[in-house]
Amino acid sequence: MTTLTQLAHAIALYEYGNFRRAAESQHISQPAFSRSIQKLEILLEVKLFNRQRGGSITPTIYGESLLIRAKTIFGETDELKREIQLLKSVDTGNLSIAIGPHAAETSANKALAELAKLHPNVQYKTIVTSWREVTDLVLSGEVDIGIAEISMAKEIDEVEVELIAQHDMVYFCRKGHPLSQCNKFLKSELNNYPLVSLRLPPRAKDLILGQHSIEAKSGDVIPSIEIDNISSARAIVSGCDAISIASPLQLEPWLASGEIQILPCGDTQLKLGYGFIFLRDRMLSPSTELYMQKVRTLETDLMQKNKLLLDRFT
Fold first, then answer.
1. What's the confidence (pLDDT) of residue 53?
2. 174 and 262 inside one domain
3. What is the rounded distance in angstroms from the CA atom of residue 160 to the CA atom of residue 279?
4. Could you give the CA distance from residue 198 to residue 102 in angstroms, rounded to a whole number?
5. How many C-beta neighbours within 10 Å does residue 129 have?
């Protein structure tokens, strides 16, 4: 029967292309390493590697097939070890999360704080980045779960998504902005002002106002002032005539102080939506499951609060 050790030796021989260096990498003698490869070839009844002039080693067609399978087997072995570690206890291990900027400001970081308070021995890691990068980090296995815009991720077979929030959004501006003095104006007038925003998904292209463009390759909405976090948008809007979009939840202190104002342009039909993104065939750890439940609970209250703030400030 083929062993994991023999497969590891075959991979090492391919990577180093030399018996001596491959043996050193596996911390065994060259004769013992050579016997391991020979036994594997005898077991499979095929020649796995060609010995070239000058001592270089290249895989045969049988060797190439074996290497593909061996790498898959080792990948599955690593995943099995990970799942066993996950099952041991919610109080140990790691939890890594990639978060979109909007979710980071609402429920994602608050949920992490609650979880860390209950389970301080877990090693936590968060990455706040763009919604496209969140999906890429999940696909690569670098993080356990993502929380971000899901409209593009749900088209990818390898991942599962779960919508967790939809918040009404508003356009906002600085106090004293020319449009803030108007009780009523055409929505199209917003197009006279720079839009400060994150890059937006294609689903927003027919809804968004303010100066922007559509990226030809991706279909993404590119604002005239593109930023990567919501605090930058608030700061820029406070100092010029640019406009931006956010949920009232994200604006509450600044709306209450009067530093910024919601533009009275009626129902924008814009929704701040985001959800969980995770690999379809990868087991979620107990700590990840707990974290997801805390986010869901928080979002139930936050969606109600956002509606109340919308009524209050419009």
1. 72
2. yes
3. 6
4. 9
5. 19
The list of the chain residues with pLDDT below 70 reads 1-2, 54, 80, 82-92, 266-268
pLDDT of 92 reads: 64
- Looking at the structure, tell me whether residues 152 and 213 fall in a common domain: no
**Domain containing 282: what range?**
89-163+274-313
CATH number of the domain within which 12 lies: 1.10.10.10
Please report the pLDDT score of residue 87 as a whole number.
54
Q: 75 with 155, same domain? A: no
pTM of the shown model: 0.69
Give me the pLDDT at residue 175, please. 92
pLDDT of residue 1: 58
238 plus 181 within the same structural domain: yes
pLDDT at residue number 268: 65
Pair 256, 130 in one domain? no
* pLDDT for 267: 63
Are residues 110 and 152 both part of a single domain? yes
CATH classification at residue 129:
3.40.190.10
pLDDT of residue 69: 83
- Name the domain count of the chain: 3
